[in-house]
Amino acid sequence: MIRWIIVIFVALMFISWFTPLLQKLGFGRLPGDFRFRLFGREWFIPLTTTLLLSGVASLIARVL
Fold first, then answer.
1. InterPro entries under this entry (predicted)?
2. Which residues face 36 on adjacent strands?
3. How far apart are CA 56 and CA 44, in angstroms?
4. Residue 42 has what DSSP assignment?
5. Is residue 34 within 8 Å of 48, Cβ to Cβ?
6. Which of 6, 22, 40, 58 has the fewest beta carbons closer than 10 A?
């Protein structure tokens, strides 16, 4: 259980780091990706993008 929480956390970190590149590809604007301002800072929670990229990674892992 804790391993999955760590994997999800790391995936969210990588997606937030690569947000500018992913936005050029159209990710980050999917339904379920939340963007809001709080305490003078813009926050981005890419739930749908995370699920989509996780599915792609899972398919690649099964093929290889």
1. DUF2905
2. 43
3. 21
4. E
5. no
6. 40
